[in-house]
């Protein structure tokens, strides 16, 4: 039985695009004859604090639905400040060397898949994988450090140059690549010195029921869902501050956690006339069962980020839900190309408001036609099972 080690920063019970994608990948491999082991940090995302069940321990070895998971201690932080974030990354690097490396030497892998970012931890994981595995795939979900510059986290100075050197070194060390967008794959190929195998592995999601296309009976007021991280990059707080959903004929239901949740909840409580409802956090399965009750999904990014295609887009597609896409890049091109909903630029309050009004004004026939287009794209272009089969063939050739 071939052995695969997945080295990542987050894994369920953490929520969000990254842990969900790694979990789906681990299950795909396990169900197709691979012995899978995951090495990850202690659960702390997106709260910036280690989950209660894991506190006070250096290492936790457990099984998650038959997948062997080794969790190692890390100093958690979701701060915007450079020093706490750097300290968190360095603690993960140290834990990888001291707590993960000995076990990797003892149980070598046929293939290791290392996820980036965070960049320093990914670089360390790549070095350890090169020492303990026959082949190494680098899984790139964001183009760091360029993304950090675009979000305003760092400037193009010495820190950027150091991280950019780390990035290029990882591309040279890896035997092959996975990228979550076509832009990421192009970026890697431009910086990589050699032609290496690469696979476009989008953050596709399984739908609860592929045939759910009926329009929900929401009356005159349309229901919009935001489900995901409430962080700085998404800018949901800014949208809540500047957009009056109720005046546009809609209500926004927010499911998720993160640094902005408290401020959003306070705003919603102080201004009920804005039509914002902050809901209890749900599991992925619970959320899937409720998706069909909504008329559209809100998918924002505060800044244009190179290579970024929000995982929430694929969640909406999988559940045949039209989108209000407030971002640019490859995701916006996909929404326009396949007719998945409405697009406005990041931070464009007027454009988003116009799109919400257009969504709210749709009649039943228009809503059904839009859901049918989303359903067609889900089956023909963004099917998770088809992607899984293609990746398994890629991996067999890669080994």
Strand content: 15-25%
Parts with pLDDT < 50 across at least 5 consecutive residues: none
Question: What best-fitting shape do the alpha-carbon axes yield?
Answer: globular
Major β-sheet strand ordering: 3-4-2-1-5-6-7-8
What structural class do you assign from the helix and strand content?
alpha/beta
CATH architecture title of the largest domain: 3-Layer(aba) Sandwich
Order of helices and strands: EHEEEHEHEHHEHEEHEHEHEHEHEHHH
Number of helices: 14
Could you tell me the radius of gyration in angstroms? Answer: 21 Å
Largest sheet: 8 strands, mixed
- Gap from first CA to last CA: 13 Å
Question: Could you say how many structural domains there are in total?
Answer: 2
Helix fraction by DSSP (H/I, runs of at least 4): 40-55%
Q: Could you explain how this protein is built, in words?
A:
- With 399 residues, the chain is an alpha/beta fold.
- The protein folds into two domains: 3-204 and 383-398, Glycogen Phosphorylase B (Rossmann fold), CATH 3.40.50.2000; 222-380, Glycogen Phosphorylase B (Rossmann fold), CATH 3.40.50.
- The protein has 14 helices and 14 strands.
- The strands form two sheets. The chain has an eight-stranded mixed beta sheet, with helices on both faces.
- α2 runs parallel beside α3 (119-132).
- The longest helix has 25 residues, at 82-106.
- The model has no long low-confidence stretch (mean pLDDT 88).
């Amino acid at each position: 039985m071939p052995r695969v080690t997945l080295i990542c920063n987050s894994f369920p019970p953490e929520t969000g695009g990254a842990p969900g994608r790694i979990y789906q990948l681990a299950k795909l491999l396990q169900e197709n004859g691979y012995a899978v082991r995951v090495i990850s940090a202690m659960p702390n995302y997106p709260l910036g604090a280690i989950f209660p069940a894991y506190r006070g321990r250096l290492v936790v070895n457990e099984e998650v639905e038959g997948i062997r998971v080794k969790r190692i201690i890390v100093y958690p932080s979701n701060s915007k400040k450079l020093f706490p974030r750097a300290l968190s990354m360095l603690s993960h690097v140290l834990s990888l060397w001291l707590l993960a490396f000995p076990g990797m030497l003892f149980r070598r892998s046929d293939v290791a898949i290392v996820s980036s970012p965070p960049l320093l931890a990914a670089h360390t994981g790549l070095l350890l994988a090169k020492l303990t595995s026959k082949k190494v795939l680098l899984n790139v979900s964001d183009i760091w450090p360029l993304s950090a510059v675009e979000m305003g986290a760092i400037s193009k100075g010495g820190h950027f140059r150091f991280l950019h050197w780390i990035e290029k070194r990882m591309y040279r060390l890896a035997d092959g690549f996975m990228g979550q967008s076509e832009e990421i794959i192009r970026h890697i190929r431009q910086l990589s010195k050699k032609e290496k195998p690469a696979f476009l592995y989008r953050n596709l999601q399984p739908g609860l029921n592929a045939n759910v296309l009926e329009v929900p009976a929401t009356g005159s007021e349309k229901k919009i869902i935001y489900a995901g991280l409430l962080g700085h990059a998404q800018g949901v707080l800014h949208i809540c501050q500047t957009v009056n959903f109720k005046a546009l004929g809609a209500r926004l239901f927010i499911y998720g956690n993160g640094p902005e949740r408290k401020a959003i909840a306070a705003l919603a409580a102080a201004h009920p006339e804005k039509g914002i409802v902050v809901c209890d956090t749900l599991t992925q399965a619970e959320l899937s069962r409720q998706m069909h009750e909504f008329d559209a999904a809100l998918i924002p990014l505060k800044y244009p980020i190179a290579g970024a295609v929000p995982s929430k887009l694929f969640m909406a597609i999988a559940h045949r839900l039209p989108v209000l896409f407030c971002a640019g890049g490859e995701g916006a091109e996909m929404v326009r190309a396949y007719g998945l909903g409405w697009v406005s630029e990041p931070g464009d309050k007027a454009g988003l408001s116009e799109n919400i009004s257009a969504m709210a004004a749709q009649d039943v026939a228009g809503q059904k036609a839009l859901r049918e287009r989303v359903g067609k794209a889900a089956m023909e272009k963004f099917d998770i099972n088809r992607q899984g089969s293609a990746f398994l063939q890629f991996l067999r050739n890669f080994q």
